[in-house]
Design a protein that fits this description.
Elements (H helix, E strand, L loop, with lengths): L1 H9 L5 E2 L38 E5 L2 H12 L3 E3 L4 E6 L2 E8 L10 E4 L11 E9 L2 E7 L5 E6 L2
Parallel strand pairs: 1-6, 2-5, 6-9
Antiparallel strand pairs: 3-4, 4-5, 7-8, 8-9
Length: about 160
């Protein structure tokens, strides 16, 4: 499977792949921690892989809206670290986080999420690029409610 993914990425434009595909990670020390709102779940997984994407953080304008959006669209769950930060759960650790911000800048690296069936993926948000074929699969791009642009791909 790893070889198959490496071959797939060779045929795609260079993109950052994270969240669903990246390694589990712990919540970063720079995220605000408030023991009164932290859940009791241990997120101290140490399965980091040298030189692999370990954690991705999204700036969001409205924490409740962002958590609802990603929870509904991708079944993501979160660890709350106060009102300004939520970790994106993955296995026994975290794959990334949502950070409350006053503005969101688009552009830069493109986060590409994997879906087993692109036609069944209901990302919501605003579709910015309709589904298209590329060597190795299909994908589309969308913006979340805060304006972050992401993509979803499938091998089918």
């Amino acid at each position: 499977m790893a070889t198959q993914h490496r071959e797939l990425w060779k045929s795609m434009p260079i993109v950052l792949t994270a969240a669903i595909i990246c390694s589990c990670a712990t919540h970063r020390a720079q995220a605000p921690q408030n023991s009164s709102t932290m859940e009791s779940e241990d997120v101290s997984d140490t399965s980091h892989v040298h030189h692999e994407i370990d954690y991705i953080e999204f700036s969001v304008l409205d924490m409740a809206e962002a958590k609802h959006f990603y929870g509904a669209a991708f079944d993501w769950t979160f660890n709350d670290y106060g009102a300004d930060y939520a970790g994106i759960r993955k296995g026994d650790g975290e794959a990334g986080g949502l950070r409350l911000a006053s503005t969101v800048t688009t552009g830069g690296p493109l986060v590409v999420l994997y879906s087993e069936n692109l036609d069944m993926t209901q990302a919501g948000g605003r579709i910015t690029t309709e589904p298209f074929d590329f060597p190795g699969g299909r994908r589309f791009h969308f913006q979340d409610p805060s304006g972050n642009e992401l993509a979803v791909y499938s091998e089918k």
